[in-house]
Amino acid sequence: MIPSFCLLLCWLALPLQGLEILDPEEVEYIRSNATATVGGSVTLDCGSTMPTIFIWGFTKPGTENNVAVAYNYGQGPKLQSQSSRLGHMQVPVNTSALVIEELQRDAEGMYTCQALYDTDNGAKITFYFTRLDVEDD
Description:
about 140 residues, mainly beta, Immunoglobulin-like, 6-stranded mixed sheet, about 45% strand, globular, Ig-like domain-containing protein, signal, Ig-like_dom_sf, Ig_V-set, Ig_sub
């Protein structure tokens, strides 16, 4: 799964050619927590404005393996096949939020949205980390 994630990042890098990244010290990190129940639904936010490009990743507790579950590189959101084991996922139109319905117990873990905003002053990168706890009904 790691090679496919690396391939995805390389593929997404193509539209970024010539894009100037701001000082790495200006990268923003935002952390939050969410709780939902098995069979229910949850919405995980990736900022209040739509980024130019975003990648949603998932890390299962006790592992360091971050797996891409959804992304948008400017041509509409795409879901990865492995996302189905976490529940029914979708990225609503004109948002970068990740909605998971029919939530599975396996959906518990850390979700990371890597958001790139193309601004007049260069690219701004924000990482949104959401720890999701899934409780039994």
